[in-house]
Design a protein that fits this description.
This is UGP3-like C-terminal hexapeptide repeats domain-containing protein. It holds the Pfam family Hexapep_UGP3_C. The protein folds into two domains: 331 residues, Spore Coat Polysaccharide Biosynthesis Protein SpsA, Chain A (Alpha-Beta Complex), CATH 3.90.550.10; 224 residues, no CATH class. The radius of gyration is 25 Å and the shape is globular. It has ten helices and 35 strands. α3 packs across α7. The protein has 579 residues and is an alpha/beta fold. The strands form ten sheets. A seven-stranded mixed beta sheet has the order 5-4-1-11-15-12-19, sandwiched between helices. The protein has a seven-stranded mixed beta sheet with strand order 20-22-24-28-30-32-33. The longest helix is centred in the N-terminal third of the chain and has 20 residues.
Length: 579
Amino acid sequence: MGEIYPLGGAGDRLGLVDEVTGQCLPVAMLPYCGRTLLEGLIRDLQAREFLYFKTFGKQEIMPVAIMTSAAKKNHELVSSLCESKGWFGRGKSNFFLFEQPLIPAVAAEDGHWLISEPLVPILKPGGHGVIWKLAFDRGVFDWFYKKGRKAAIVRQISNPIAATDVTLLALTGVGHHHNKKFGFASCERKVGAAEGVNVLVERKGKHGWDYSVTCIEYTEFNKLGIPDVPVSPGSMQAQYPANTNVLYVDLPSVERIASCRSSRSLPGMILNLKKPIVYEDYHGVTHRTYAGRVECTMQNVADLMINTFSSQLKPSQHGCLDTFVVYNKRRKVTSSAKKQRKRTDFLLHQTPDGSFLDVIRNAHELLSSCHIEMPNMESVECYLEHGPPFIAILHPAIGPLWNIVQQKITGGQLTRGSELQLEISELFWKDVQLEGSLLVLAENVVGSLQDTENEEKILFYGKGCGKCRLERVTIQNKGVDWNSKQNVYWQHKVSRLESLTIILHGHSEFEAQDVHLQGSVTFEVPDGFRMRVTQGDDGIKCDLHPLPSGSQTFGSWQWRYTLQDGGYVQLDMQTTVEN
C-alpha cells in the first residue's frame, strides 16, 4: 500500500495567515491539535506502520505521493515543512511531490473572468480530479510500482479524523482482500449538507446491465433530479450516505483511465460557482464575490469502473462489483476543517472548532470504554462559550485500533476541566485519577532515528521507545486556565496554571505506583534510564537507575501484539529477566 494526499487547495475560507509574517497560508499548514494538518496525516500513517511492526515484526515505510499547487506558496511551504522535519524519518525517497496547475476563475454573477490587472486572471487550483492525469504525466504510478505498491489510500488534508479506530484499515482490507478497483469510506449525512453522496448506479446498457458505486456532488443534485430528502419522515439524516473522499485506489486500474487521451482522464468535470473569492484588482479595490472555475473530482474516476451483467443483480449480489463502499460512524470517518467559524456563529460544520469537538467526542467514547469515569459532554453553545468539558489528545500509536487502547488504558477518572496529553505508544495505565493536567511526552514515540548509508536519519520502529507505567496514581493540580482569553482549544494552544509533566528523553522509562502527585511537577528522565516514583514515609520517593543490561533496544518491558481470529489484536506484557 501507499498513500496519496491531495494538498493543492487554496483554503480561502479558512482565512489562515502566518502570525509573524502575515502571509496567507494553505490548508496543509493549519495548526491543529498542536501540529500542522500535514504532520497529523503522517502521524496517523506512522501509527498504522507501528501497528504492523508490533503485530508482524517487520519494518514497513509506505511511500507517500503529495499533490501540491502554487496557490499561497503551497508547494514551497509543504516542501520546506518536510525538509525541516527531516522527511519525518521516512527518507526523502519515500515522498513524491507533484504540483497541481492553477486555472482562471469566473464571476458567478456575470460570467466574466476575474482579473487582478489587465490580461492577468485570478488563478485558483482546478479541483483534485486532475490528480490522476497529473500522476500519470509525472510518473507517480511508475514510482509506486518500483516500490512494490499496487494500491493506495487517498486522504484529503482537511479531514484530520479519517484514521480513527478501524476506518482506514477496514477500507484497505476490503479493497485488498477482495481485489477491488476503487472504494469509498462513507457515513451518515445531514439533509442539506454541502457534501456529495455515494450511490449505486444501475443502468440498462447496450450489452446488459451496468453497475458501479460512485459519487454525485451536491452541486449536481438538481441537474440529475436527485432529491435531498431524509431517510424517514422527521429525520435529519439524508437518504444517501456522504462522500468523504477517503478512498481506496487500485493503481493499475486508475492508471489505465488516466493514460487515455480524452476527457475520460479528467473525471467529474463541473463548474462550481458557489465558492466565495476575495481578491484585489489593479485599482487596489478589494472585491468579495462568488466565483467558480472548471473543476474535476478525483472520486468520479469510479464512474468509469463499470461492471456489466446480462441480467439485473439482486441486492445480495452487489458485493461482486469492482467498486465498493464501507460505512462507519460519521465522527470516525470525517469531520473537516475547511472554513473559519464566525465568532457569533453556532454552526460548526466544516470548521476547525467543530472538527475538534468531534475529537473530544471520540475521546469521550474511547476512554469511557476503557472504564474511565468521564465528565458529561455538553451542548455546542456551552462548548463555544466555555470550551470543552475536558481535553484528551492521544497519540494514535497507542492504538490506533480502539481494542488495543482498551488493553493499555483501564480504569480511573478524568474530572471536568482536566487535560490529558499522551505522546507515547508504550503505555500502561491502570486506575489513574486525574484532576488537572497530565502531559506524557516521549521523545521516541514509536521508535528511534538511526543514520543510514545515504546519511539520512530513518525511523526504526520499536527500538528505543519511551515507556510509561501508571498504576493506582492520583494526580491533582490546577491544570488549564479555562478563563484565559489566549486559549485556542482546537489548536491545543492553552494556558496552564499547573501540570504534571513527564518527559522521556530517548530510550527511557517512567513508573509510578500507589502515589498521590499534587501541584506543578515535572519528571524528566534521561536517555537510558528508568525512573520509579513511589510513596515514601516523608513524601514522594523518586529512584533513577540505568535500564537493565541487555534491554537497551526494547527496555525492561514491552507490549507483545498477537493477531487473533476476527482481526482482534491481543496484548500481553513482556518483561526482561532483570525487571
